[in-house]
Protein backbone atom coordinates (compact mmCIF):
# COMPACT_ATOMS: atom_id res chain seq x y z
CA UNK A 1 0.00 0.00 0.00
CA UNK A 2 1.48 3.33 -1.07
CA UNK A 3 1.23 6.21 1.45
CA UNK A 4 -0.92 8.27 -0.92
CA UNK A 5 -3.43 5.42 -1.32
CA UNK A 6 -4.02 4.56 2.31
CA UNK A 7 -7.42 6.25 2.55
CA UNK A 8 -8.93 4.42 -0.41
CA UNK A 9 -7.13 1.10 0.07
CA UNK A 10 -7.20 0.85 3.87
CA UNK A 11 -10.34 2.73 4.95
CA UNK A 12 -12.79 3.01 2.06
CA UNK A 13 -12.32 -0.29 0.25
CA UNK A 14 -14.98 -2.98 0.56
CA UNK A 15 -18.59 -3.80 -0.24
CA UNK A 16 -20.30 -0.61 -1.37
CA UNK A 17 -23.68 -1.82 -0.09
CA UNK A 18 -22.44 -2.39 3.47
CA UNK A 19 -23.64 0.05 6.15
CA UNK A 20 -20.47 1.55 7.60
CA UNK A 21 -21.92 4.50 9.53
CA UNK A 22 -25.22 5.10 11.26
CA UNK A 23 -25.82 8.75 12.08
CA UNK A 24 -29.56 8.64 12.60
CA UNK A 25 -29.79 7.05 9.17
CA UNK A 26 -27.59 4.36 7.63
CA UNK A 27 -24.68 5.39 5.40
CA UNK A 28 -23.45 2.68 3.06
CA UNK A 29 -19.82 2.54 2.01
CA UNK A 30 -20.56 3.61 -1.58
CA UNK A 31 -22.35 6.73 -0.32
CA UNK A 32 -19.41 7.55 1.94
CA UNK A 33 -17.01 7.21 -0.99
CA UNK A 34 -19.19 9.60 -3.02
CA UNK A 35 -19.21 12.11 -0.16
CA UNK A 36 -15.42 11.90 0.11
CA UNK A 37 -15.14 12.43 -3.66
CA UNK A 38 -17.20 15.62 -3.44
CA UNK A 39 -15.21 17.01 -0.54
CA UNK A 40 -11.94 16.10 -2.26
CA UNK A 41 -12.97 18.29 -5.23
CA UNK A 42 -14.04 21.11 -2.89
CA UNK A 43 -10.77 21.12 -0.94
CA UNK A 44 -8.71 20.87 -4.12
CA UNK A 45 -10.57 23.88 -5.52
CA UNK A 46 -9.32 25.86 -2.51
CA UNK A 47 -5.73 24.98 -3.35
CA UNK A 48 -5.31 22.15 -0.85
CA UNK A 49 -2.99 19.43 -2.07
CA UNK A 50 -0.07 17.37 -0.78
CA UNK A 51 1.52 19.16 2.15
CA UNK A 52 -1.40 21.54 2.66
CA UNK A 53 -2.74 22.36 6.12
CA UNK A 54 -6.41 22.21 7.13
CA UNK A 55 -8.29 22.65 10.39
CA UNK A 56 -11.58 20.80 10.85
CA UNK A 57 -13.93 22.39 13.35
CA UNK A 58 -16.97 20.25 12.70
CA UNK A 59 -19.27 18.34 15.05
CA UNK A 60 -19.66 14.56 14.70
CA UNK A 61 -21.34 14.21 11.33
CA UNK A 62 -21.02 12.77 7.85
CA UNK A 63 -19.43 16.11 6.93
CA UNK A 64 -16.72 15.56 9.54
CA UNK A 65 -15.86 12.09 8.24
CA UNK A 66 -15.97 13.09 4.56
CA UNK A 67 -13.79 16.19 4.98
CA UNK A 68 -11.28 14.35 7.14
CA UNK A 69 -10.84 11.53 4.63
CA UNK A 70 -10.79 13.96 1.71
CA UNK A 71 -8.01 16.01 3.29
CA UNK A 72 -5.97 12.87 3.91
CA UNK A 73 -6.63 11.62 0.38
CA UNK A 74 -5.11 14.86 -0.98
CA UNK A 75 -2.04 14.38 1.21
CA UNK A 76 -2.88 17.32 3.47
CA UNK A 77 -2.23 17.65 7.17
CA UNK A 78 -5.56 17.82 9.02
CA UNK A 79 -5.84 19.30 12.52
CA UNK A 80 -8.93 18.50 14.58
CA UNK A 81 -10.60 21.04 16.86
CA UNK A 82 -13.54 20.08 19.03
CA UNK A 83 -16.61 21.97 17.85
CA UNK A 84 -17.52 22.69 21.49
CA UNK A 85 -14.54 25.00 21.97
CA UNK A 86 -15.39 28.64 22.51
CA UNK A 87 -14.64 31.16 19.78
CA UNK A 88 -11.74 32.44 21.87
CA UNK A 89 -10.28 28.94 22.28
CA UNK A 90 -10.72 28.17 18.58
CA UNK A 91 -9.08 31.44 17.56
CA UNK A 92 -6.12 30.78 19.83
CA UNK A 93 -5.74 27.30 18.31
CA UNK A 94 -5.81 28.69 14.76
CA UNK A 95 -3.19 31.28 15.66
CA UNK A 96 -1.05 28.49 17.06
CA UNK A 97 -1.50 26.02 14.20
CA UNK A 98 -1.56 28.52 11.29
CA UNK A 99 -3.63 26.50 8.76
CA UNK A 100 -4.28 27.43 5.14
CA UNK A 101 -7.95 26.48 5.36
CA UNK A 102 -10.60 26.11 8.08
CA UNK A 103 -13.63 23.88 7.57
CA UNK A 104 -16.47 24.92 9.87
CA UNK A 105 -20.28 24.68 10.05
CA UNK A 106 -22.24 27.19 7.98
CA UNK A 107 -24.56 27.84 10.94
CA UNK A 108 -24.14 27.64 14.72
CA UNK A 109 -24.34 24.11 16.09
CA UNK A 110 -27.12 23.78 18.67
CA UNK A 111 -28.24 20.95 20.91
CA UNK A 112 -25.64 20.34 23.62
CA UNK A 113 -26.73 16.72 24.19
CA UNK A 114 -26.84 15.73 20.53
CA UNK A 115 -24.27 13.07 19.69
CA UNK A 116 -24.21 13.88 15.97
CA UNK A 117 -25.45 16.63 13.70
CA UNK A 118 -26.57 17.35 10.16
CA UNK A 119 -24.36 20.23 9.05
CA UNK A 120 -23.40 22.08 5.92
CA UNK A 121 -19.73 23.03 5.94
CA UNK A 122 -18.12 26.24 4.70
CA UNK A 123 -14.48 26.75 3.79
CA UNK A 124 -12.59 29.74 5.17
CA UNK A 125 -9.19 30.74 3.83
CA UNK A 126 -6.70 31.49 6.59
CA UNK A 127 -3.36 33.25 6.10
CA UNK A 128 -1.39 30.27 7.32
CA UNK A 129 1.39 28.12 5.94
CA UNK A 130 1.74 24.65 4.40
CA UNK A 131 2.31 21.84 6.88
CA UNK A 132 5.62 22.14 8.67
CA UNK A 133 5.90 18.38 9.21
CA UNK A 134 4.95 15.19 7.42
CA UNK A 135 2.19 14.29 9.90
CA UNK A 136 -1.28 13.75 8.41
CA UNK A 137 -3.09 14.28 11.73
CA UNK A 138 -2.66 17.04 14.30
CA UNK A 139 -4.40 16.80 17.66
CA UNK A 140 -4.23 18.90 20.78
CA UNK A 141 -3.89 17.09 24.08
CA UNK A 142 -6.81 17.44 26.47
CA UNK A 143 -5.24 20.14 28.64
CA UNK A 144 -6.79 18.62 31.78
CA UNK A 145 -3.53 18.98 33.74
CA UNK A 146 -1.77 21.80 31.88
CA UNK A 147 -1.43 23.59 28.53
CA UNK A 148 -2.34 21.53 25.47
CA UNK A 149 0.48 19.96 23.46
CA UNK A 150 0.49 19.81 19.66
CA UNK A 151 0.71 16.14 18.71
CA UNK A 152 1.28 14.78 15.20
CA UNK A 153 0.55 11.32 13.79
CA UNK A 154 1.75 9.96 10.46
CA UNK A 155 -0.35 7.81 8.16
CA UNK A 156 1.92 4.87 9.00
CA UNK A 157 1.32 5.46 12.72
CA UNK A 158 -2.47 5.45 12.29
CA UNK A 159 -2.41 2.33 10.12
CA UNK A 160 -0.15 0.58 12.65
CA UNK A 161 -2.54 1.43 15.47
CA UNK A 162 -5.53 0.02 13.60
CA UNK A 163 -3.53 -3.15 12.95
CA UNK A 164 -2.69 -3.22 16.66
CA UNK A 165 -6.39 -3.14 17.52
CA UNK A 166 -7.00 -6.12 15.24
CA UNK A 167 -4.64 -8.25 17.34
CA UNK A 168 -6.37 -7.48 20.65
CA UNK A 169 -8.82 -10.11 21.85
CA UNK A 170 -12.26 -8.69 22.53
CA UNK A 171 -12.37 -5.87 19.96
CA UNK A 172 -15.38 -5.71 17.59
CA UNK A 173 -15.17 -8.06 14.64
CA UNK A 174 -16.16 -7.57 10.97
CA UNK A 175 -19.93 -7.41 10.77
CA UNK A 176 -20.23 -6.21 14.36
CA UNK A 177 -21.37 -2.86 15.69
CA UNK A 178 -19.59 -0.12 17.62
CA UNK A 179 -21.80 2.37 19.46
CA UNK A 180 -19.45 5.30 19.83
CA UNK A 181 -19.82 7.54 22.87
CA UNK A 182 -16.27 8.96 22.86
CA UNK A 183 -15.41 11.98 20.72
CA UNK A 184 -14.20 11.36 17.16
CA UNK A 185 -11.90 14.37 17.56
CA UNK A 186 -9.78 12.47 20.09
CA UNK A 187 -7.75 9.33 19.71
CA UNK A 188 -10.05 6.70 21.24
CA UNK A 189 -13.09 7.64 19.16
CA UNK A 190 -11.09 8.51 16.06
CA UNK A 191 -8.86 5.44 15.75
CA UNK A 192 -10.57 2.88 18.00
CA UNK A 193 -13.99 3.82 16.65
CA UNK A 194 -14.01 5.47 13.22
CA UNK A 195 -10.81 4.25 11.52
CA UNK A 196 -10.90 0.74 13.00
CA UNK A 197 -14.59 0.34 12.13
CA UNK A 198 -14.08 1.49 8.54
CA UNK A 199 -11.11 -0.82 8.03
CA UNK A 200 -12.53 -4.05 9.47
CA UNK A 201 -16.13 -3.53 8.33
CA UNK A 202 -17.79 -2.94 11.70
CA UNK A 203 -20.73 -0.54 11.67
CA UNK A 204 -20.07 2.64 13.63
CA UNK A 205 -23.24 4.02 15.21
CA UNK A 206 -23.73 7.18 17.22
CA UNK A 207 -26.72 7.56 19.55
CA UNK A 208 -29.19 10.35 18.87
CA UNK A 209 -28.25 12.04 22.15
CA UNK A 210 -25.77 11.47 24.96
CA UNK A 211 -28.48 10.45 27.40
CA UNK A 212 -29.02 7.08 29.04
CA UNK A 213 -32.20 6.36 27.07
CA UNK A 214 -30.62 7.27 23.74
CA UNK A 215 -27.47 5.24 24.41
CA UNK A 216 -29.50 2.18 25.37
CA UNK A 217 -31.70 2.64 22.30
CA UNK A 218 -28.63 2.72 20.07
CA UNK A 219 -27.29 -0.43 21.74
CA UNK A 220 -30.62 -2.18 21.11
CA UNK A 221 -30.99 -1.00 17.49
CA UNK A 222 -29.10 -3.84 15.83
CA UNK A 223 -28.88 -7.60 16.13
CA UNK A 224 -25.13 -7.84 15.42
CA UNK A 225 -22.72 -8.16 18.36
CA UNK A 226 -22.46 -4.65 19.78
CA UNK A 227 -19.70 -2.94 21.76
CA UNK A 228 -20.07 0.39 23.55
CA UNK A 229 -16.95 2.55 23.34
CA UNK A 230 -16.70 5.46 25.76
CA UNK A 231 -14.98 7.01 28.77
CA UNK A 232 -15.55 6.61 32.54
CA UNK A 233 -18.19 9.35 32.51
CA UNK A 234 -20.37 7.15 30.30
CA UNK A 235 -19.86 4.15 32.58
CA UNK A 236 -21.08 6.18 35.56
CA UNK A 237 -24.06 7.36 33.53
CA UNK A 238 -25.10 3.84 32.50
CA UNK A 239 -24.35 2.32 35.91
CA UNK A 240 -26.87 4.73 37.46
CA UNK A 241 -29.70 2.74 35.82
CA UNK A 242 -30.87 0.23 38.40
CA UNK A 243 -32.93 -1.92 36.01
CA UNK A 244 -31.67 -1.54 32.43
CA UNK A 245 -33.61 -3.17 29.59
CA UNK A 246 -32.54 -6.47 28.07
CA UNK A 247 -29.96 -5.86 25.35
CA UNK A 248 -29.41 -9.19 23.57
CA UNK A 249 -26.89 -7.75 21.07
CA UNK A 250 -24.71 -6.03 23.66
CA UNK A 251 -21.51 -8.00 24.22
CA UNK A 252 -19.55 -5.50 26.27
CA UNK A 253 -18.19 -2.02 26.80
CA UNK A 254 -14.68 -0.67 26.52
CA UNK A 255 -13.62 2.48 28.29
CA UNK A 256 -10.55 4.62 27.81
CA UNK A 257 -9.12 7.13 30.24
CA UNK A 258 -8.84 6.76 33.98
CA UNK A 259 -9.57 3.46 35.72
CA UNK A 260 -13.25 3.09 36.53
CA UNK A 261 -13.89 3.05 40.28
CA UNK A 262 -14.47 -0.42 41.70
CA UNK A 263 -18.02 0.31 42.90
CA UNK A 264 -19.00 1.69 39.48
CA UNK A 265 -17.38 -1.28 37.72
CA UNK A 266 -19.35 -3.73 39.87
CA UNK A 267 -22.61 -1.84 39.39
CA UNK A 268 -22.23 -1.84 35.59
CA UNK A 269 -21.26 -5.53 35.25
CA UNK A 270 -23.93 -6.66 37.70
CA UNK A 271 -26.71 -4.77 35.92
CA UNK A 272 -25.78 -5.34 32.28
CA UNK A 273 -24.16 -8.78 32.61
CA UNK A 274 -21.54 -8.06 29.96
CA UNK A 275 -17.80 -7.49 30.09
CA UNK A 276 -16.46 -4.07 30.98
CA UNK A 277 -12.94 -3.61 29.67
CA UNK A 278 -10.37 -0.93 30.29
CA UNK A 279 -7.99 0.57 27.76
CA UNK A 280 -4.97 2.77 28.49
CA UNK A 281 -3.57 5.04 25.84
CA UNK A 282 -2.17 8.43 24.98
CA UNK A 283 -2.90 10.87 22.19
CA UNK A 284 0.77 10.55 21.22
CA UNK A 285 0.69 6.82 20.37
CA UNK A 286 -2.91 5.64 20.69
CA UNK A 287 -3.75 2.39 22.47
CA UNK A 288 -0.95 1.20 24.77
CA UNK A 289 -2.43 -1.52 26.99
CA UNK A 290 -5.78 -3.21 27.55
CA UNK A 291 -7.77 -5.47 29.82
CA UNK A 292 -10.96 -5.86 27.82
CA UNK A 293 -12.41 -8.67 29.96
CA UNK A 294 -11.54 -7.32 33.40
CA UNK A 295 -9.29 -10.31 34.07
CA UNK A 296 -6.27 -8.38 35.36
CA UNK A 297 -7.94 -5.36 36.95
CA UNK A 298 -6.32 -2.97 37.75
CA UNK A 299 -3.40 -4.26 35.66
CA UNK A 300 -3.34 -4.25 31.85
CA UNK A 301 -1.50 -6.16 29.14
CA UNK A 302 0.61 -4.11 26.71
CA UNK A 303 -0.94 -4.01 23.24
CA UNK A 304 0.80 -6.00 20.49
CA UNK A 305 3.86 -4.18 19.21
CA UNK A 306 4.04 -1.83 22.20
CA UNK A 307 6.77 -1.99 24.84
CA UNK A 308 6.28 -0.46 28.27
CA UNK A 309 8.80 -0.14 31.06
CA UNK A 310 8.94 1.64 34.40
CA UNK A 311 11.75 4.05 35.17
CA UNK A 312 11.90 5.56 38.66
CA UNK A 313 8.20 4.88 39.07
CA UNK A 314 7.16 6.44 35.74
CA UNK A 315 5.77 4.48 32.81
CA UNK A 316 7.73 4.84 29.56
CA UNK A 317 6.23 3.79 26.23
CA UNK A 318 8.08 2.79 23.08
CA UNK A 319 7.72 5.35 20.28
CA UNK A 320 10.03 5.31 17.24
CA UNK A 321 9.87 9.09 16.73
CA UNK A 322 8.84 12.15 18.69
CA UNK A 323 5.11 12.85 18.21
CA UNK A 324 5.40 16.50 19.15
CA UNK A 325 5.14 19.44 16.79
CA UNK A 326 6.64 22.65 18.09
CA UNK A 327 8.03 23.33 21.56
CA UNK A 328 7.71 20.67 24.23
CA UNK A 329 9.38 20.15 27.57
CA UNK A 330 12.90 18.70 27.24
CA UNK A 331 13.21 14.97 27.68
CA UNK A 332 9.55 14.16 27.09
CA UNK A 333 10.71 11.88 24.25
CA UNK A 334 14.24 10.50 23.87
CA UNK A 335 15.94 7.48 22.30
CA UNK A 336 12.70 5.81 21.24
CA UNK A 337 10.92 6.19 24.59
CA UNK A 338 8.06 8.49 25.48
CA UNK A 339 7.54 9.63 29.06
CA UNK A 340 3.90 9.07 30.00
CA UNK A 341 3.90 11.32 33.07
CA UNK A 342 1.92 8.50 34.70
CA UNK A 343 3.14 6.68 37.78
CA UNK A 344 3.15 2.94 37.31
CA UNK A 345 4.87 -0.41 37.51
CA UNK A 346 5.52 -3.40 35.25
CA UNK A 347 5.49 -6.95 36.62
CA UNK A 348 8.78 -8.59 35.68
CA UNK A 349 7.22 -12.06 35.40
CA UNK A 350 3.90 -11.44 33.65
CA UNK A 351 4.72 -8.22 31.80
CA UNK A 352 1.45 -6.72 33.03
CA UNK A 353 1.54 -3.00 33.77
CA UNK A 354 -0.39 -1.07 36.39
CA UNK A 355 -1.10 2.65 36.26
CA UNK A 356 -0.98 4.24 39.71
CA UNK A 357 -2.20 7.65 38.60
CA UNK A 358 -0.59 10.82 37.39
CA UNK A 359 3.03 11.16 38.42
CA UNK A 360 2.22 14.44 40.08
CA UNK A 361 -0.40 12.67 42.22
CA UNK A 362 2.36 11.13 44.32
CA UNK A 363 3.25 13.59 47.08
CA UNK A 364 5.00 13.60 50.44
CA UNK A 365 3.25 14.80 53.60
CA UNK A 366 5.49 15.03 56.64
CA UNK A 367 7.88 12.59 55.01
CA UNK A 368 5.08 10.08 54.34
CA UNK A 369 4.11 9.18 50.77
CA UNK A 370 0.52 9.87 49.78
CA UNK A 371 -1.10 8.66 46.57
CA UNK A 372 -3.80 11.23 45.81
CA UNK A 373 -5.47 8.83 43.39
CA UNK A 374 -6.01 6.36 46.24
CA UNK A 375 -7.55 9.09 48.40
CA UNK A 376 -9.72 10.28 45.52
CA UNK A 377 -11.09 6.78 44.89
CA UNK A 378 -11.83 6.35 48.59
CA UNK A 379 -13.73 9.65 48.71
CA UNK A 380 -15.61 9.06 45.45
CA UNK A 381 -16.65 5.59 46.64
CA UNK A 382 -18.43 6.85 49.76
CA UNK A 383 -22.24 6.80 49.89
CA UNK A 384 -23.66 10.14 48.85
CA UNK A 385 -20.59 11.21 46.85
CA UNK A 386 -21.39 11.54 43.15
CA UNK A 387 -17.91 12.62 42.02
CA UNK A 388 -14.68 13.87 43.54
CA UNK A 389 -11.23 15.24 42.79
CA UNK A 390 -8.33 15.25 45.25
CA UNK A 391 -5.18 17.29 44.64
CA UNK A 392 -2.34 18.99 46.45
CA UNK A 393 -2.15 22.77 46.43
CA UNK A 394 0.26 25.01 48.32
CA UNK A 395 1.51 22.06 50.35
CA UNK A 396 -1.90 20.83 51.52
CA UNK A 397 -4.35 18.20 50.28
CA UNK A 398 -7.70 19.52 49.08
CA UNK A 399 -10.79 17.76 47.81
CA UNK A 400 -13.65 18.93 45.62
CA UNK A 401 -16.77 16.80 45.74
CA UNK A 402 -20.24 16.66 44.25
CA UNK A 403 -22.61 15.43 46.98
CA UNK A 404 -26.14 14.10 46.66
CA UNK A 405 -26.94 16.23 49.71
CA UNK A 406 -24.65 19.29 49.90
CA UNK A 407 -25.45 19.63 53.61
CA UNK A 408 -23.95 16.20 54.35
CA UNK A 409 -20.30 17.26 54.19
CA UNK A 410 -19.63 16.45 57.86
CA UNK A 411 -21.04 12.94 57.36
CA UNK A 412 -18.78 12.44 54.37
CA UNK A 413 -15.76 13.68 56.32
CA UNK A 414 -16.55 11.23 59.14
CA UNK A 415 -16.92 8.33 56.72
CA UNK A 416 -13.63 9.22 54.99
CA UNK A 417 -11.89 9.29 58.39
CA UNK A 418 -12.86 5.64 58.85
CA UNK A 419 -11.21 4.64 55.56
CA UNK A 420 -8.18 6.90 55.16
CA UNK A 421 -5.33 7.62 57.56
CA UNK A 422 -5.22 11.11 59.05
CA UNK A 423 -2.08 12.19 57.17
CA UNK A 424 -3.74 11.30 53.84
CA UNK A 425 -7.01 13.08 54.43
CA UNK A 426 -7.85 16.38 52.71
CA UNK A 427 -7.65 19.40 54.96
CA UNK A 428 -10.82 20.68 53.31
CA UNK A 429 -13.58 19.08 51.26
CA UNK A 430 -15.07 21.76 49.03
CA UNK A 431 -18.63 21.00 47.96
CA UNK A 432 -19.33 21.94 44.33
CA UNK A 433 -22.43 21.65 42.16
CA UNK A 434 -20.41 20.01 39.41
CA UNK A 435 -16.76 19.39 38.60
CA UNK A 436 -15.24 21.29 35.67
CA UNK A 437 -14.54 19.00 32.75
CA UNK A 438 -12.81 19.19 29.39
CA UNK A 439 -14.93 18.81 26.26
CA UNK A 440 -14.08 15.08 26.27
CA UNK A 441 -15.46 14.57 29.78
CA UNK A 442 -12.13 14.48 31.63
CA UNK A 443 -12.18 16.20 34.99
CA UNK A 444 -10.07 19.36 35.00
CA UNK A 445 -7.50 19.19 37.79
CA UNK A 446 -6.30 22.77 37.63
CA UNK A 447 -6.63 24.31 41.13
CA UNK A 448 -7.82 27.66 39.79
CA UNK A 449 -10.60 26.07 37.75
CA UNK A 450 -11.68 23.92 40.70
CA UNK A 451 -11.68 26.84 43.10
CA UNK A 452 -13.86 28.83 40.71
CA UNK A 453 -16.39 25.98 40.81
CA UNK A 454 -16.85 26.29 44.59
Short description:
The protein is an alpha/beta fold. The chain has helices at residues 6-11, 29-45, 62-73, 87-97, 155-166, 187-200, 212-220, 232-239, 262-272, 372-380, 409-419, 447-453, and strands at residues 19-23, 25-28, 53-56, 77-80, 101-105, 121-125, 137-140, 150-153, 177-180, 203-205, 226-230, 250-256, 275-282, 286-291, 299-302, 308-311, 314-318, 333-334, 337-346, 353-358, 362-365, 368-371, 385-393, 396-403, 428-431.
Description:
The termini are far apart. The protein is α/β, with parallel strands linked by helices and 454 residues long. Helix 5 (155-166) packs across helix 6 and helix 8 packs across helix 9 (262-272). It has helices at residues 6-11, 29-45, 62-73, 87-97, 155-166, 187-200, 212-220, 232-239, 262-272, 372-380, 409-419, 447-453; strands at residues 19-23, 25-28, 53-56, 77-80, 101-105, 121-125, 137-140, 150-153, 177-180, 203-205, 226-230, 250-256, 275-282, 286-291, 299-302, 308-311, 314-318, 333-334, 337-346, 353-358, 362-365, 368-371, 385-393, 396-403, 428-431. Helices cover 28% and strands 28% of the residues. Strands 1, 2, 9, 10, 11, 12, 13, 14, 15, 16, 17, 18, 19 and 20 form a 14-stranded mixed beta sheet that branches. Strand 16 (308-311) and strand 17 form a beta hairpin. The chain is globular.
Amino acid sequence: MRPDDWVDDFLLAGDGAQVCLRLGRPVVRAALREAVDRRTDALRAQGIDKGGSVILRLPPSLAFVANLLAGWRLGAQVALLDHRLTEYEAQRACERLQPQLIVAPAAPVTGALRAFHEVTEVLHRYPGEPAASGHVLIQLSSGSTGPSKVIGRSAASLVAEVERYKRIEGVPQPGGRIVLLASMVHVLGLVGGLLYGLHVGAELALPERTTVDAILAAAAAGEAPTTLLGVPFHIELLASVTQPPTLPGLTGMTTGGELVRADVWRAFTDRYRVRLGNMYGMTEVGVIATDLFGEHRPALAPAPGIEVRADSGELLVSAPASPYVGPVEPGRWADGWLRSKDAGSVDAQTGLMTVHGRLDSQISVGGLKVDLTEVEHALAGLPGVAAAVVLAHSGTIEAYAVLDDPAARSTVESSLAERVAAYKRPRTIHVVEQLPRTVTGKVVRDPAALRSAV
